[in-house]
Design goal:
Elements (H helix, E strand, L loop, with lengths): L3 E2 L6 E2 L9 E2 L6 E4 L1 H22 L3 H26 L4 E3 L10
Antiparallel strand pairs: 1-2, 3-4, 4-5
Helix pairs in contact: 1-2
Length: about 100
Protein backbone atom coordinates (compact mmCIF):
# COMPACT_ATOMS: atom_id res chain seq x y z
CA UNK A 1 0.00 0.00 0.00
CA UNK A 2 1.24 3.48 -0.90
CA UNK A 3 2.21 5.71 2.01
CA UNK A 4 2.21 9.48 2.32
CA UNK A 5 5.77 10.82 2.49
CA UNK A 6 7.16 14.29 3.16
CA UNK A 7 8.66 15.59 -0.10
CA UNK A 8 11.61 17.10 1.80
CA UNK A 9 12.72 14.41 4.29
CA UNK A 10 10.72 11.30 3.23
CA UNK A 11 9.16 11.00 6.70
CA UNK A 12 6.03 8.82 6.70
CA UNK A 13 3.03 11.12 7.19
CA UNK A 14 0.14 9.50 9.03
CA UNK A 15 -3.49 10.52 8.67
CA UNK A 16 -3.45 12.02 12.17
CA UNK A 17 -0.72 14.46 11.06
CA UNK A 18 -2.77 15.92 8.20
CA UNK A 19 -4.57 19.23 8.42
CA UNK A 20 -6.30 21.38 5.82
CA UNK A 21 -5.32 23.38 3.86
CA UNK A 22 -1.65 22.79 4.81
CA UNK A 23 0.38 21.51 7.75
CA UNK A 24 3.96 21.07 8.97
CA UNK A 25 5.93 17.84 8.64
CA UNK A 26 6.37 16.37 12.14
CA UNK A 27 10.09 15.75 11.49
CA UNK A 28 11.49 18.65 9.40
CA UNK A 29 8.70 21.24 9.96
CA UNK A 30 8.46 21.88 6.19
CA UNK A 31 5.05 23.27 5.18
CA UNK A 32 3.31 20.55 3.14
CA UNK A 33 -0.17 19.80 1.83
CA UNK A 34 -2.23 17.12 0.17
CA UNK A 35 -1.96 17.35 -3.61
CA UNK A 36 -4.41 19.82 -5.13
CA UNK A 37 -5.13 17.38 -7.97
CA UNK A 38 -6.16 14.72 -5.45
CA UNK A 39 -8.51 17.12 -3.65
CA UNK A 40 -9.99 18.29 -6.95
CA UNK A 41 -10.66 14.72 -8.10
CA UNK A 42 -12.25 13.77 -4.78
CA UNK A 43 -14.47 16.86 -4.81
CA UNK A 44 -15.58 16.30 -8.40
CA UNK A 45 -16.32 12.64 -7.71
CA UNK A 46 -18.21 13.53 -4.51
CA UNK A 47 -20.25 16.18 -6.32
CA UNK A 48 -21.08 13.84 -9.20
CA UNK A 49 -22.08 11.08 -6.81
CA UNK A 50 -24.24 13.47 -4.76
CA UNK A 51 -26.16 14.81 -7.76
CA UNK A 52 -26.57 11.34 -9.25
CA UNK A 53 -27.95 10.06 -5.92
CA UNK A 54 -30.41 12.96 -5.69
CA UNK A 55 -31.51 12.42 -9.29
CA UNK A 56 -32.02 8.68 -8.80
CA UNK A 57 -34.08 9.37 -5.66
CA UNK A 58 -36.42 11.38 -7.86
CA UNK A 59 -35.53 14.97 -7.09
CA UNK A 60 -35.85 17.44 -9.96
CA UNK A 61 -35.50 21.19 -10.50
CA UNK A 62 -34.63 23.45 -7.58
CA UNK A 63 -34.84 20.64 -5.03
CA UNK A 64 -32.27 18.65 -7.06
CA UNK A 65 -29.87 21.61 -7.14
CA UNK A 66 -30.23 22.49 -3.45
CA UNK A 67 -30.10 18.90 -2.21
CA UNK A 68 -27.22 18.07 -4.54
CA UNK A 69 -25.20 21.07 -3.35
CA UNK A 70 -25.67 20.18 0.30
CA UNK A 71 -25.03 16.47 -0.23
CA UNK A 72 -21.93 17.21 -2.33
CA UNK A 73 -20.30 18.99 0.63
CA UNK A 74 -20.99 15.99 2.84
CA UNK A 75 -19.90 13.42 0.26
CA UNK A 76 -16.70 15.28 -0.59
CA UNK A 77 -15.73 15.46 3.08
CA UNK A 78 -16.42 11.78 3.67
CA UNK A 79 -14.59 10.73 0.50
CA UNK A 80 -11.57 12.90 1.38
CA UNK A 81 -11.23 11.31 4.81
CA UNK A 82 -11.80 7.76 3.52
CA UNK A 83 -9.38 8.38 0.67
CA UNK A 84 -6.58 9.30 3.08
CA UNK A 85 -6.81 5.78 4.49
CA UNK A 86 -7.82 3.72 1.45
CA UNK A 87 -5.80 5.43 -1.31
CA UNK A 88 -3.23 7.78 0.28
CA UNK A 89 -2.61 10.89 -1.83
CA UNK A 90 0.66 12.46 -2.87
CA UNK A 91 1.99 15.01 -0.42
CA UNK A 92 3.52 18.13 -1.94
CA UNK A 93 5.39 21.12 -0.60
CA UNK A 94 3.06 24.01 0.25
CA UNK A 95 3.73 27.14 -1.80
CA UNK A 96 1.86 30.31 -0.88
CA UNK A 97 -0.50 31.48 -3.61
CA UNK A 98 1.04 34.33 -5.56
CA UNK A 99 4.64 33.30 -4.84
CA UNK A 100 7.14 31.43 -6.96
CA UNK A 101 8.23 29.17 -4.11
CA UNK A 102 11.79 30.51 -4.17
CA UNK A 103 13.84 30.93 -1.02
Amino acid sequence: MKTMLCPECDFKIEVRHTRFPHFACPRCQCEIRISRNYLLCVRLFGTSLAFLTCYLVGLRGVSLVLSGAILSLIMSGILTILGLVIAPPTIEKHIQDGSLGLR
